[in-house]
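Repro:
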Amino acid sequence: MFNPFEAILIITQFIVLLTFHEWGHAKSADMLGDATARHQGRMSLNPAVHIDLIGTILLPLLGTLFGSTFFGWAKPVPVNPFNLKNPRKDMMLIAAAGPFMNIVLTFAILGIARFSELVFDFPQSGSQLHAEIARQWRRMGLISVFLAAFNMLPIYPLDGFSVVRGLLPAGAARQWENLSPYGMPILMCLIFLPGLLRIPNFIFGFLAEVSYATFYLIEKIVGLR
């Protein structure tokens, strides 16, 4: 079982990352002509406007404390497709903006970690505090990459569903949209069923492989490897 302080740190990191993720959706929608999120106060980096009590705090906290599946969400950003010039294409771009923001954040987080190493000479200092700071930066970067990878799954209501819809021809996109009612049950089964049946979660295993590979690549780019 995690200690409570560690759990609070993870949830705080999660909230910050979700805030930027949702801001990415809101900002891109505004840039593409839909000001709905801005008018509702959602184009903000204030975490309070994006927090869903159950999805952003309670479920992730329970998962962290008890070592069960870590799962959560923020309030969805409102988008009115009728305000967009090319609704299908623009909705795809708005959906992709959230995961893209997480990748940008990972570069920023690991860049800060690298800068800290250079300025404070963390690797040579041997300080336990310095090692812990570096660990926290890296973990936050890894969570950010995983958020991007998870949200790109082509399952409603995740961002990947809208991205795939935007890439398909109009007729196929309409057929794809018909799958949306089944998305949430499928997603819940993928997340929780393997744990209940005590079988490997191959989807999360695949996402972990993709996330670690991306994370290590970004580490190498910023000079941490």
